[in-house]
Each structure stands twice: as C-alpha cells, then as structure tokens.
Design goal:
The complex is a heterodimer of chains A (501) and B (373).
Chain A: H1 8-28, H2 30-47, H3 49-52, H4 55-59, E1 87-90, E2 95-96, E3 99-107, E4 113-123, E5 130-139, E6 143-150, E7 156-158, E8 169-170, H5 171-175, E9 182-189, H6 190-194, H7 197-210, H8 217-230, E10 248-258, E11 264-273, H9 289-325, H10 327-341, H11 345-355, H12 360-371, H13 373-386, H14 390-397, H15 402-438, H16 449-458, H17 461-464, H18 467-495
Antiparallel strand pairs in A: 1-11, 2-3, 3-4, 4-10, 5-9, 5-11, 6-7, 6-8, 6-10
Chain B: H1 3-54, H2 61-79, H3 85-97, H4 115-150, H5 155-169, H6 172-186, H7 197-210, H8 215-257, H9 260-267, H10 272-310, H11 315-324, H12 328-356, H13 358-361
Helix pairs in contact in B: 1-2, 1-3, 1-12, 4-5, 4-8, 4-10, 4-11, 4-12, 5-8, 6-8, 6-10, 7-8, 8-10, 9-10, 10-11, 10-12, 11-12
Classes of the chains: A alpha+beta (501), B mainly alpha (373).
C-alpha cells in the first residue's frame, strides 16, 4: 500500500485488472472450464428450445388427446432393443418400414358393399403394445364390421362375429356410432376393445378353447388385463403363466360390410403403437419426456440464477453496509440476518404453498427472502477487515462519503467472492424448487423436472420399474447443480489459494 | 458467572427467540388461512339460510333481514371469526407451543387421533433414522476428510472432491428413488416401503414374550428387521451428506496443517497419526461442530422428503399425508415440530462447541457465528 489516495478511476482500473486476472486463472482451471462449457450448452438449450426441441409438445403438455398415439410408460428406444417400433400409416402413406396397408373394395353377391383394409406387419421380437385405428366413414344403411387377425402360425383370430354368417357385429359395437347412418370419423384403440369383458367372452375365449386351453376365472382375469398381448403369443402350454411372443408376419384385417352401395370408407390413420419411445421414454399419458427434460433447462436456470443472483447481491450489500457501519447498527443488522438465517426454509415453504396457490415468482421471491443472510454474514466480516485498510482510511481522509466508501472502495474488493457465492448457491435453489414440485406444490402452470418426478412418484414408478422416468429428470437436476458447483469451486480455489495445496 | 455459562444462556435465549419468531410466522399463516376458508363457509351458509327463509310467507322483509343478520353473527361467533386478529395469532401460538391441537381427521400413524400423539410418534421415528444417519456421516466423513487432507491431489482427494460436487447437487429423495429402483425393484433385497417396521418389531417382541422363540433368535431377527427396513433410507441420507461434509473437513484440516503448532509437533517427532488426530483434529473441532450443525439442519429438509419416498413412518410421511389429505393444522404442527427439532439440535451442539473451544471456555469468543439453518 503506498498510502497515497487512489482516484476512483484507479480503483476501477484495479477492479478491472483483478477480474481479468480471475478470468485468466479461471481459464486455466480444468473443473471451471468443464462447468462453463456445460453451462454454455445448457444456456443454448434454454434459449434455442424452439429449434432444439418441439415447442408444440410443451404447449400441448396437458392436452392428453395430443399424446394418445404414443406408447404409454415406454422406455427409451436405445434401452429397449427388442421393443416394437411405432409405425404410423396414413391415407397418403400406406406403407412404412415393417408395415403395409392394402385396401380393397368389392360387391358381395348379396349386394352389400365390402371395404376391406388389411394391415400386414412384421413382429421381430415383441409385438405392438396397442393398435389405434381411425377411419373416415360415410354410410346411410346398416353397416357391420369384421376384424380378424391372421397369425404367422396359420391361426386366424376373429375379433368380431362374421358379418357374412349370422347377424355380425355392428359399427356401434366397435366404434360406438350409429349403425344405420353415420358420416364422420370413427376411431378405436384395439387393446381396450379386445380386453373388454364381453369381447373376451365372445372372441378370445372361444379361440383359446378351440386350441385346447381351459378358461376359468383366473384365466379370464388375465385375458381382461393382457388379452391384447396374448393375440401375439406362442400357444405354449403355460401361456397364462409365462408369455412368449410369436415372431413373424401378422395380417390384421378390418372390413366394413354395408348395405349402402354408396357408402365410403377410408383410412385416416392407423398407428401400431410400439413398446419404446424416443430418447427419454414416455410417461403414463404417452408424453415425450425428452421434450420435458429439454424444456426444464429454461426454468431451472431462471430459478437458480435469479434466486442466487438476487440473494447474493442483497446479502452482499447488506453485509458490507453492516460491517462498515459498525457499533449498534452492525449488531442489530447482524442479529436480524442471523434470525432469518436460522429459519428452516423448506418446511416453511411447504406449509405456505399448501395454503396459497403456488407460483414460480413467489417461490423465487421467498428463496431470496430466506437466502440472502448467508452471504451477508460472510461479507460483513470481510468489510470489518477491509474498512481498516489504509487505502480506505486515505480515501476517508480526503473526504470520501459513506456511500462512496461502501460502493466504490469496499464492495469491489468483495465482488469476486460474490461470483463464487452466486455459482455455489444455484443448486440449492434448483433443488428447493424440485423438492416442492415433487411434493405436488409446484407452480401448476409450469413444467419442471420436479413435476415430472412428482408424476413418476404418483404412478409408483419405483415399484413398477419405470427407471427412465425417475433417472433422467434427476440427472438433469444434478447436471445443472454440478455445473454451477464446478464453476463455484474453481472460483473458490482461485480466491483461497490455501485450498489448492 | 463464567464465560461458558453466559454464552450458553445467551445462545439458548437467541435460539428460543428464533423459535418464537417461526411459531409466530406459522400462526399468522394459519390465522389468515382459517379466516379465508371460514369466511367462505360463512358466506355460503348465510346464502343457503337466506334462500330457506325467503320461502316463509309469515315473515316480513324486516324480520327476514334481522334473522339473516343474527344467523351470520352466530356463525361468525361459532367459527371464531370475531375478535382481534393479534389475539388469535397469540392463541394459535400458545396452542402450537403446548401442542394442544385436538384431533386429526384420521389416524395416519400410531393408534390415536390426537395430532399431538401422531406428531410425537413421527418425531421419534424421524429422530431414530436421522440420528443414526448423522452419527454415521460424521464419523465416516471425518475419517475420509482427514485422510484426503493428508495427501491433497491424491487419489482419495480427487474422488472426494468429485463426490462433494455431486453431494451438493443431487436431491436426496431422488437418490432414494434410484435406490428403490436398484435394490428393491431390480434386486429385491429390500422392501419398497418401510411403514411396517414398527409393526413387525412389536410382533416380534410379542412372539418373544409368549415364548415362541428363544432370546438369541429374537435378537437376531430384531436386528434383521431393523436392517431390512432401515438400510435403504439410511444409506441414501448418508451417501448424499457424507461427500460434502468430508470435503469441508478436508478444507478445514488443510488450513490447519500450515500452522506452526503442527510443524512443531512434527518436528518433535510426534507420530503422524497422532498429529492428525490429536493436534489437527483437536484444533479444528470447533469450526467442524459448526459445520455439522449447519449440515445437519440443512439435510433435514431433504431427509424429510426422502422419508416420503421410502415410506419411513416419520415426519416426512406425515408431511405427505397431511398434504394429500389437506390436514392443514397437522401440516402446521409438523412444520413447528421440525423447527423445534432444529433448535434443540442447535442448542445441544452449542453446548458441545463451548466444551471444545478453549476460547469460549475462557470467555474470549462469540460462540457459533451463524447458528443454524
């Protein structure tokens, strides 16, 4: 220290040089740069989510109809190599990899018009988990439906009665619309159709009995649960205990038989719902978890950065003012900070959000309200030392005011430590939000990782083994936390060289 | 009065003041909530009543108005909506402090409807889990931290700093879910829910008392039951807290190692192990106690949510059931007791701190700075 008062420009010059030094040392720190790199990637994902991700998915997150064709509770495809891959057939795209649609129309001898749709698909290891069909239909006279499945072992399973013999199954029985006249779109999920108790009794049971199985109440209850899977099973003696799938070519035929020669039927969409989904799997509504994971980055960064930035700044200034003021003012200010510091935040937040409507901004505000004293206590003790330094005394001697001393002479010295503190307190805020959301106390209008985990917990994901639904959101939370801890630790090590040894 | 006693009294009063402030906050939240909820109920009841007497042809308009007003006043009186809000907050505080809180709507834990009994039982169970976890964490962390500090940048030190990073950034309850997926779902070694532990234990002791099993079998199966139900929650809490704690130990110890008395001890030829445990650890113990308090209280929040994941029948589970059943009073009580637990832990550790720090004993220092969180 020269003892010569420095001009404020020189002070800023010092600060600038100090920060430049900090940056130079930071660039040399391996952990710090790792953290910074991940942070840049995360920020990129957050800002460019409309390009990286699919904003439409987030807009429709609570619109469950949007997700109905996706496999439900499906693991990611990289982890389920034997699962059936989803195939979508539409009117303009009748053949896809592994499946092909053949449409035919003819007049039956009795004058009825037959519109038949045959879907040929190949099962390698596991069959589809569901088949969703959607038709555009128009007819003005009684119409019946025929659904049958031809299996690779030569068996044919009738899922309706045969309309060419006897009364047949009406459109109403399958699609729930009027049998004699309808114009519009009809749709059905085959697995829920097949496993309906009435249909199990009428179609699955006779088929299995004709193959020599005895169907009692136990078997019936298995059929109402997994009747759809049994359509694709090898007919082994212990079919009901251990299900083995039958690979090969299947042919699903859906035919409309109408007395109206003017009737028209066309496929709008047929989805062979697979057993795996995307890169991050799906939840119980078939929602694409990958989109949730990517979108969550934005809110995690907002919550973490806003809460830690605000509480560090407020706490930093508060502490410096307290330490600089000294005496009774310092004593009172310190006591206040200590009292707030001693309040266990999470229980209070849980209680509060159980009573008021949770909001993300209120949460961030409260995290700041309870979060600033930690920094304040540290900066206060730093300010106590700094205000005795000769350069501060010199500045005071030439008449620098209190404001000037605090903000231009003391605070800049503490600034680097505040950077470290900002980084180190981000994970706490992110985890606090995730914990509240996990308890179902998150902002209902916002999709966060904690909320995805809450839904996983409610769907008993741990008991049912939906590991992707638990693992991936938690990894994201940990990743964000780790990123900031790495940066903070690097800064900390630079500022406290003794730790390096 | 000696320095220690004065310091302890000051600290205890401080902590009690903090407790009172928190109880006041909880009470204010409650009074406002009740006021709003009941106000809504009163308005609805008065509207119903008005519709009812509207049909009565024997009453004049004046009489109807008077009846409705009277009805409303009665309801407000009955629901306790009248009176001074400050008085109400005060009453609520007294009720919380004395745990005089009446009954919950259901029995969630134990065998009594009383909120007090349920919360105290949960508190006991949480204390069992949490104290065990803290003791294990403290000793394992001390051990790892000391050895990592001996060789900075060594293998153990590197592993430790990595685990410290994860320690601070992963939610305890999430690790709990992963543990369940691995050890309960995949391997089937441990149960999904620990709720039954105390039922199983009392069944065991009943069987023993009837004489169905010998003492040895009883003892073994008792220990087995404890481990079977407690292992996963315990290990989860320990794994998450031990990394950060050991890292702090390492940092404090490294700072101490540069001091002169250590060099003197080494120069005198004191064995390294004795330097480490006798000199360095002894000198580092006051700040370490502070950190234990901070860490303890910090991790309790996460540990509570972890309990809900494992179904451990403690405060965390009560939090969960109180939330899902909208038992607001129960929720408030659980919050209060959790805070109480913090404060008690802090008071006890302050006492230990005073015993450890020679400066405190001679009355030269200010005690634990930032007390607790």
């Amino acid at each position: 220290m020269t003892g010569r008062p420095k001009s404020s420009r020189r002070r800023f010059e010092d600060l600038r040089r100090g920060l430049a030094n900090l940056a130079r040392e930071f660039r040399r720190s391996k952990t710090g740069m790792t953290g910074l790199t991940i942070l840049v990637i995360l920020t990129f994902i957050a800002i460019f989510f409309p390009i990286v991700g699919n904003p439409e998915a987030i807009d429709n997150w609570t619109n469950l109809e949007y997700w109905q064709d996706n496999p439900k509770k499906a693991p990611p495809c990289w982890a389920a190599s034997d699962a059936f891959r989803t195939v979508v057939i539409t009117s303009n795209n009748t053949s896809a990899i592994g499946a092909e649609l053949v449409a035919r129309e003819w007049m039956a001898p009795d004058g009825r018009k037959v519109s038949s749709f045959s879907l040929l698909f190949k099962v390698e290891k596991k069959p589809p988990t569901n088949i969703n069909v959607e038709f555009r239909v128009s007819y003005k006279k009684t119409t019946r439906v025929l659904i049958l499945l031809e299996r690779p072992d030569g068996q044919t399973v009738y899922l309706t009665k045969d309309p060419f013999e006897g009364r047949g199954t009406s459109v109403k029985d399958v699609f729930g619309v009027a049998t004699t006249k309808f114009n519009g779109t009809v749709s059905k999920q085959l697995s829920s159709y097949v496993t309906k108790p009435k249909n199990v009794e009428n179609f699955l049971r006779p088929w299995l009995e004709s193959n020599g199985y005895k169907i009692g109440t136990a078997e019936t209850s298995v059929l109402t649960k997994s009747g759809f899977d049994i359509l694709f099973a090898k007919l082994t003696p212990n079919l009901f205990n251990q299900l083995e799938y039958l690979p090969g070519r299947y042919n699903l035929t859906i035919a409309f038989v109408s007395k109206d020669p003017e009737s028209s039927f066309e496929v709008k969409k047929i989805v062979l719902v697979g057993g795996c989904f995307g890169l991050a799997g799906s939840d119980k509504y078939g929602r694409d978890l990958l989109q949730g994971l990517l979108y969550g980055v934005k809110w995690a960064l907002i919550i973490g950065l806003l809460a830690s930035l605000a509480s560090t700044l407020i706490g930093g200034v508060y502490g410096v003012v307290s330490g600089y003021a000294g005496g009774v003012v310092d004593e009172v200010m310190l006591r206040i900070a200590q009292v707030i510091y001693s309040i266990p935040v999470l229980p209070i937040l849980i209680l509060l959000f159980a009573i008021i409507k949770p909001s993300i901004w209120i949460l961030i505000g409260l995290l700041v309200v309870f979060g600033w004293p930690g920094m304040a206590i540290v900066t206060r003790s730093m300010a106590l030392q700094l205000k005795e330094e000769t350069y501060v005394e010199a500045a005071r001697a030439i008449g620098a005011g209190h404001f000037r001393l605090v903000f231009l002479y003391i605070l800049p010295q503490i600034l680097p430590y505040m950077f470290a503190s900002i980084a180190l307190s981000v994970p706490g805020a992110v985890i606090a939000e995730a914990s509240l959301s996990f308890l179902g106390l998150g902002d209902p209008t916002i999709l966060t990782w904690g909320k995805i985990l809450n839904e996983a917990q409610n769907a008993a994901a741990t008991i049912n083994g939906y590991w992707w639904w638990v693992l991936l959101p938690g990894i994201m939370i940990t990743l964000v936390g780790t990123t900031f801890i790495l940066i903070g630790q690097a800064l900390d090590t630079i500022l406290n060289p003794r730790l390096k040894r | 009065m000696s320095g220690v006693a004065r310091l302890l009294i000051v600290q205890t009063i401080n902590n009690l003041a903090i407790l009172l402030i928190i109880v006041a906050i909880i009470s204010v939240i409650f009074v406002i909530y009740n006021q709003q909820a009941l106000e809504g109920a009163v308005i609805e009841a008065v509207q119903n009543y008005a519709r009812m007497i509207e049909r009565n042809p024997n009453l004049t308009e004046e009489e109807k108005k008077m009846l409705i007003e009277q009805f409303e006043q009665n309801l407000r009186y009955k629901f306790g909506l009248l009176g001074n809000p400050v008085q109400k907050v005060y009453n609520m505080m007294i009720r919380l402090l004395t745990l005089d809180l009446g009954n919950a709507r259901q029995i969630y834990i134990g065998a009594s409807y009383a909120i007090k009994d349920q919360v105290l039982l949960a508190l006991r169970n949480t204390a069992i889990l949490f104290t065990t976890a803290t003791i294990i964490t403290t000793f394992v962390g001390l051990f790892i931290g000391l050895y990592a500090a001996r060789r900075p940048q060594g293998l153990l030190d590197r592993v430790l700093s990595i685990s410290a990073v994860f320690s601070a950034s992963l939610p305890t309850w999430w690790l709990g879910m992963l543990m369940l997926l691995i050890f309960a779902f995949k391997l089937g070694w441990f149960p999904f829910q620990s709720k039954d532990i105390f039922i199983k234990l009392s069944e065991l002791s009943a069987a023993y008392q009837v004489g169905e099993m010998g003492y040895f079998t009883y003892l073994v199966s008792r220990i087995y039951t404890w481990i079977y139900y407690m292992f996963l929650p315990l290990v989860t809490v320990v794994i998450v807290s031990v990394g950060g704690w050991a890292y702090v130990v390492r940092n404090i110890v490294i700072n101490r190692m540069t001091e002169d008395f250590v060099m003197v001890a080494r120069a005198k030829g004191v064995p390294e192990r004795k330097v480490l445990f006798g000199h360095i650890l002894r000198a580092s113990s006051p700040p370490l106690v502070t950190i234990i308090v901070l860490g303890l209280v910090n991790s309790l929040g996460g540990a509570i949510i972890t309990e809900t994941v494992f179904g451990w029948p403690g405060m965390g589970l009560l939090y969960w059931v109180a939330l899902t059943n909208s038992e607001t009073l129960l929720l408030g009580t659980v919050t209060y007791v959790t805070v109480l637990l913090f404060v008690i832990a802090v008071v006890i550790l302050n006492f230990i701190y005073a015993l450890l720090d020679p400066r405190v004993r001679t009355g030269h220092a200010g005690g634990i700075g930032p007390v607790a969180r």
